From TrEMBL:
Keyword Repressor: no
InterPro entries found in the cross-reference section: Glyco_trans_1, Glyco_trans_4-like_N, Glycosyltransferase_grp1
Superkingdom of origin: Archaea
Organism the protein comes from: Methanobacterium formicicum
PANTHER family listed in its UniProt record: SULFOQUINOVOSYL TRANSFERASE SQD2
Protein name, as recorded: Glycosyltransferase
Length: 396
């Protein structure tokens, strides 16, 4: 088959897990014998590149700035950027021309912000089946995370947000043939907000490469706790830091891997605690080594997190996960089997969980076996086979 994936970002431009997943899936589809093209925003000076067999078109949208630079823009520019990004005819025309040239059997859109909702239109007008994987809540929230300006779950959107979201719903209507998400929670949340009610939906968990199920020997002489991800308010790293700093045990360590807007604030919270170490963004073997050395990974999100790749990656290294009981996280973590869940934002509950596990290497070993069994459900091979089945149904 000839498959076109559309993603607002593609490595080396990375702001989250979605673009990393798109790259891995694209390259795996090529290995399976498919012809794959990707449409994304620029990451190099070339308009078209072929990387690991994937043909990549880099489209530079006409807007105030590119999506990769969005997190660092002023609050004055962001609203105007969003308005322009609602429907960008320039993007639509370029994407349509690419699809006419390539004539794929199916188009699969991932994160679209920065390429605008107009990226949905060309496939429909050219009668090409369109799949949409939702990784967040961009279609029902300008912030994409359903949090208000105070960093709390938004239960009463402003009038401006309601208008913006209604426009988005109208523009997305009747464009998608199949809705996919790694978590059922996100699918249900979109449908409860009036989106894709009559569209077939499918939960397809993310895929992880197991590296031949290599066995790692864990060390329990010191308990190593790990956080991997964005250092934004919504990820709840401040909750983890508060819980960790309340623990008096000196034979523990917390490694924080990632970057984000709250980086300096979080570092200041950790001052004078030499048990805490911050690392920048890591990937590949360096990141895998962090998971292997960890006894626990913590995912302390305070937003309706979708299906964090961090959990899959941690399980693949036999490292149990403590995660917030919110969004799609409980669909991956089973209490007492491969980790534990705690109430999102509850510092005391997280502290107690950490203390109990720090004092119980035997429990950690039991959880490690659970992670090994869990990750067998989420292999990259299973993920690709599910996608292929859905593509083939649509392309008939």
């Amino acid at each position: 088959m000839k498959i076109c994936l559309i993603s607002n970002l593609y490595p080396p431009n990375v702001l989250g897990g979605a673009e990393v997943s798109v790259k891995k899936v694209s390259e795996e589809l090529v290995k399976k014998g498919h012809e794959v093209i990707v449409i994304t925003t620029p990451f190099s000076e070339n308009d078209v590149e072929i990387i690991n067999g994937v043909k990549i078109y880099q489209v530079k949208p006409l807007n105030l700035y590119e999506i990769y630079h969005h997190p660092n823009q002023s609050m004055l520019l962001k609203p105007l950027w969003h308005i322009i990004d609602l429907w960008n005819p320039y993007d639509e025309r370029i994407i349509e021309n690419i699809l006419k040239t390539e004539n794929p059997d199916v188009v699969h859109i991932h994160n679209f912000k920065g390429l605008s909702l107009s990226s949905f239109a060309p496939a429909k007008s050219l009668k090409i089946p369109l799949v949409f994987t939702t990784h967040d809540y961009s279609l029902v929230c300008m912030r994409a995370n359903l949090l208000n300006s105070s960093g709390e779950i938004c239960k009463n959107p402003s009038a401006l947000c309601k208008i913006y979201n209604q426009i988005q719903k109208h523009l997305a209507k009747n464009k998608v043939d199949l809705l996919i998400s790694p978590s059922q929670f996100v699918i249900n949340k979109l449908k409860s907000n009036g989106l894709f009610k009559d569209v077939k939906s499918k939960k397809i968990p993310l895929g992880i490469e197991l590296k031949d199920n290599e066995k790692f020997e864990k060390d329990y002489s010191q308990t190593n706790i790990l956080y991997v991800g964005n250092l934004g308010e919504h990820k709840g790293v401040h909750i983890l830091l508060k819980a960790f700093r309340k623990i008096e045990n000196r034979n523990i360590r917390l490694d924080i891997v990632g970057k984000g807007l709250c980086s300096e604030k979080l570092k200041s919270m950790s001052e004078n605690d030499n048990r805490i170490k911050f690392h920048d963004f890591l990937e590949g073997k360096e990141l895998i080594k962090m998971y292997q050395q960890a006894n626990l990974t913590v995912v302390p999100s305070i937003w309706y997190d979708n299906s964090p790749m961090v959990i899959y990656e941690s399980f693949s290294c036999r490292t149990p996960v403590i995660g917030s009981k919110i969004g799609g996280i409980p669909e991956l973590i089973e209490d007492g089997f491969n980790g534990y869940l705690f109430e999102a934002g509850n510092v005391n509950e997280l502290q107690k969980l950490l203390e109990n596990l720090i004092d119980s290497p035997e429990t950690l070993k039991k959880l490690e076996q659970g992670t090994y069994e869990s990750v067998q459900r989420y292999t990259m091979d299973k993920h690709i086979k599910q996608l292929e089945r859905e593509y083939q149904k649509l392309a008939k």
